[in-house]
Amino acid sequence: MSATGAAGDTVLARVEGHLGRLTLNRPRAINALDHAMVGALHASLAAWEGDDAVAAVLLDGAGERGLCAGGDIRAVRASARDGDRRAAEFWRDEYLLNARIARYPKPYAAFMDGVVMGGGVGVSAHGSVRIVTERTVVGMPETTIGFVPDVGGTYLLSRTPGETGTHLALTAGSVGAGDALYLGLADHFVPSERLSALAEALAGAASADGVAEAVGRFAETAPASDLDGRRHWIDSCYAADTAEEIVERLRAHGDPEAAEAADTIVRKSPTAVKVTLAALRRARELHSLEEVLEQEYRVSCAALASPDVVEGIRAQVVDKDRSPKWVPDTLEAVTDEDVARHFAPAPDGPLGLAAPRASEAGAAG
Questions:
Q1: pTM summary value
Q2: Among the four residues 3, 277, 341, 348, which has the most C-beta atoms within 10 Å?
């Protein structure tokens, strides 16, 4: 999809009719988010919130590869290696943006076309009008790089049917349009060739009802879900209390796909897998996205001190040898204390989105 604006702008913001349009504009990086882009999105959304001429907002991505491949993980690795707070400062503003999108008072539409990973999920799946296409590939691949699903990902994945979200989070799997709808990560299916026409229709919609009517005219029946047919082994295996037992159940089940999932999990960062499982289980007990984002901020800041983040990004993005050396290197070697430290208060305090629980307030004091 094409976009207009200055060539150097990494976020193109303009008003077309009644529509505030935001285009992530780093196509060579599949529109990966950096700190400046997060700030630009904040600024536009704040300005349009009080602008009566803007009835709705639309987010899309420049180029043909996808909406957004995630955050700038090379910058995260540099921050972790240098021991500074740059990554934490980025996450703070990014998570505040995720919360802003979720509670935005006007329709917030996202064209989840092509690749939508990690941070891309955060700026799309919390919106009120989430549109997928036949090209959509959605995922939270964090355990592959020694990290944990964030940007509200543990909120979304903890509320999917059965244990499907746990399966995706631990394996770092990705899904297409049918499964994105099934999981509650999207609302409508529109063929990619019709997105430009839909954007024009949205620009002509002067109200939330007009937006809904426009989307309804373009939405079509989505492909069937693949995950729904795997629930017979996903739900029983991932209901186990520990990551070790999940792997054991997957290997013992007898379904080849279950065995493959077990092999995938044990190749991920053992620490990230265990922390992810704990984060998902805790997120189920939290009542709001804001509370979960507060938890994710604590986990992300703690993960900066883990050698697995630096090593995982090296193996996947820098050297691309796909052979990370995890520390510890087995699930059994990751202790309860290793997991628990990820949920301690963040060094620079909470995001301010949700009041801390009494236990957290006591720990902080």
A1: 0.94
A2: 277
